[in-house]
Inverse folding.
């Protein structure tokens, strides 16, 4: 208790110096939390976008279908499987799609796309395509052969809403077939590659054009919770061993890698911040010890043992961190809370971000355990930083120290 | 009763380069209740001798016994504990802890000894009364004069109930009034409570008051006079 009180008083011996160190710790922790929250928010949003807009949690295909998208590799009893999946308590929604790789052409130009034949009602429950439509509507008009394309595709093809475009692809019989479609909706997502590569038509119309024998090429499953994914994937694979059951992690491994490595990357980043703080603390404490050489020598002379000297210096160091750390934590928490509602608009970088499928609005986010981890790191760093100054104090010879002016 | 006994004490600095004998074959005994001044010109080895007697420095050769304990053979860790419980120190530059009040400075050494609060409070009051500073208990060192700070240092040195007090030029930084006042207090404590004081000094006022004067020159005892 005596050491704790003395150390506390020693911290405030030089208000200015202590406040500078505390401020440095506060800003370091704040910056660490903010950047952690910023990138966590950004990547979590990207992951959510992948699940909600692109892949869903789980996709089922015929074996090798994704190797070259052969139109004949469809899921033969797709509707039955879909019904079973819909009845699964882990499943929030599921849909079957018929797919074809083809060309989309306007009078101006053409480009290659994946033609997604979707059931509008089912699709709306699984993906947020309907919400992404910026012009027109979502298969709501009672028109024949409607198509939804992206803004990027519309720009490339130089077409507008209600323009006519032509889809050309290989039918099941091997013949090349074409069909005219009218643009009834133009969507925009935050992923340029996805936008440029996908168009949506009605499933039954694509089925008719491909050949009636063709069934679902893809079943997309949206689960009630991400935590159910691994177990569900295993169950479905066991139930349909002849099919390929994959999670979004298998389908877009580059996002899975980012998500997996995020904690490690941020730990390295935080380590760099913490090391900078540690050296700042060590420097300050060494200065404090140099200034108090004579006093420490006197304490040793009158009988304060080395353990007590060590802990007195260690407590002083830990105090600095224990004031700065939680203050930075609180500031970081408030900043994250503020921007998690308001968002940070990175509109000026939107083109570059869209290239990576990242939205220009970032909503920083931080989970509770990350705050605890950072607080723990600050305490550990303070303890680590206290060792060297305390060791230097122990090395003082009382006779030399007392003589020092 | 014999409190300090040194035998053939030597201290040589820079043994390997240019050896300097700071203490040269000193044999000195101090009895309980002495009021002894160790005098001599600068560089005569007074402070070094005091440091060795106080267990702050190790002799190159020779022995130091404090009552029955030979401290010259003790490890530095053991010496710290020994100093805490057996020796009181008064330094030339007061060396109080600036962030603590006068009361806390005196109490500090008893906290190191793990004395109970009641005992600490009573002892602090007793000692602050003895040095005439009972009205300055809650003042920090920076709020006290040099003389007052040195009186607090005396109280602190006495707080652990040591076997003797070592004072290294305690009046060197004091004006004559404060120095006289401090000497009065120490002499009173010596006479009334039989506390042993050993000073290193070249202050004539201290030498005049001392009952025994040991003179060092070049580390050697050249005279040892006990006044009648």
């Amino acid at each position: 208790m005596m050491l704790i009180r003395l150390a506390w008083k020693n911290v405030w011996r030089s208000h200015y110096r202590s406040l500078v160190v505390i401020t440095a710790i506060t800003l370091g922790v704040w910056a660490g939390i903010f950047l952690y929250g910023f990138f966590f928010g950004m990547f979590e949003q990207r992951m959510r976008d992948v699940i909600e807009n692109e892949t869903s949690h789980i996709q089922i295909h015929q074996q090798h279908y994704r190797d070259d998208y052969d139109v004949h590799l469809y899921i033969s009893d797709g509707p039955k499987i879909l019904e079973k999946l819909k009845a699964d308590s882990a499943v929030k929604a599921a849909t079957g799609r018929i797919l074809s790789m083809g060309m989309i052409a306007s009078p101006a130009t053409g480009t290659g796309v994946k033609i997604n034949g979707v059931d509008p009602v089912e699709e709306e429950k699984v993906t947020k395509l309907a919400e992404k439509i910026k012009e027109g509507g979502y298969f709501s008009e009672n028109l024949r052969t409607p198509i939804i394309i992206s803004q990027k595709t519309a720009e490339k093809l130089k077409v507008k809403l209600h323009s006519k475009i032509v889809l050309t692809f290989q039918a099941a019989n091997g013949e090349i077939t074409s069909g005219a479609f009218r643009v009834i909706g133009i969507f925009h997502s935050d992923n340029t590659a996805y936008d440029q590569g996908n168009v949506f038509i009605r499933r039954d119309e694509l089925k008719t054009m491909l050949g009636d024998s063709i069934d679902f090429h893809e079943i997309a499953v949206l689960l009630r919770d991400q935590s159910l994914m691994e177990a569900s994937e295993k169950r479905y694979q066991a139930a349909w061993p002849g099919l390929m059951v994959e999670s979004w992690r298998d389908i877009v491994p580059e996002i899975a890698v980012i998500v997996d490595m995020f904690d490690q990357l941020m730990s390295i980043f935080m380590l760099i911040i913490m090391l900078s703080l540690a050296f700042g603390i060590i420097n300050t404490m060494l200065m404090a010890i140099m200034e108090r050489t004579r006093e420490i020598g006197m304490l040793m002379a009158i009988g304060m043992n080395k353990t007590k000297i060590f802990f007195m210096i260690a407590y002083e160091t830990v105090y600095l961190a224990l004031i700065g750390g939680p203050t930075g934590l609180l500031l970081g928490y408030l900043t994250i809370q503020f921007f998690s509602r308001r968002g940070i608009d990175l509109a000026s970088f939107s083109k570059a971000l869209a290239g990576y499928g990242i939205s220009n609005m970032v909503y920083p986010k931080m989970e509770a355990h990350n705050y605890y981890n950072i607080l723990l790191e600050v305490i550990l760093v303070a303890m680590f930083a206290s060792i060297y100054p305390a060791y230097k104090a122990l090395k003082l010879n009382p006779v030399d120290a007392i003589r020092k002016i | 009763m014999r409190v300090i006994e040194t035998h053939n004490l030597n201290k040589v600095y820079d043994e390997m380069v240019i050896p300097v004998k700071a203490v040269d074959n000193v044999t000195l005994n101090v009895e309980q209740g002495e009021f002894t001044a160790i005098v001599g010109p600068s560089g005569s080895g007074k402070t070094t001798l005091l440091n060795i007697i106080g267990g702050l420095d190790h002799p190159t050769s020779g022995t130091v016994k404090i009552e029955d304990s030979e401290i010259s053979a003790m490890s530095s860790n053991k010496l710290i504990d020994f100093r805490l419980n057996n020796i009181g120190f008064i330094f030339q530059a007061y060396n109080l802890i600036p962030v603590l009040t006068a009361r806390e400075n005196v109490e500090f050494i008893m906290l190191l000894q793990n004395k109970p609060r009641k005992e600490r409070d009573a002892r602090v009051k007793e000692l602050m009364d003895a040095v005439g500073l009972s009205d300055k208990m809650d003042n920090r060192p920076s709020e006290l004069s040099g003389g007052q700070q040195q009186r607090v240092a005396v109280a602190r040195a006495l707080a652990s109930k040591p076997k003797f007090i070592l004072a290294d030029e305690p009046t060197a930084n004091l004006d004559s009034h404060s120095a006289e006042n401090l000497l009065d207090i120490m002499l009173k404590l010596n006479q009334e409570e039989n506390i042993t004081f050993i000073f290193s000094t070249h202050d004539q006022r201290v030498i005049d008051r001392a009952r025994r004067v040991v003179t060092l020159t070049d580390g050697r005892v050249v005279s040892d006079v006990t006044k009648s």
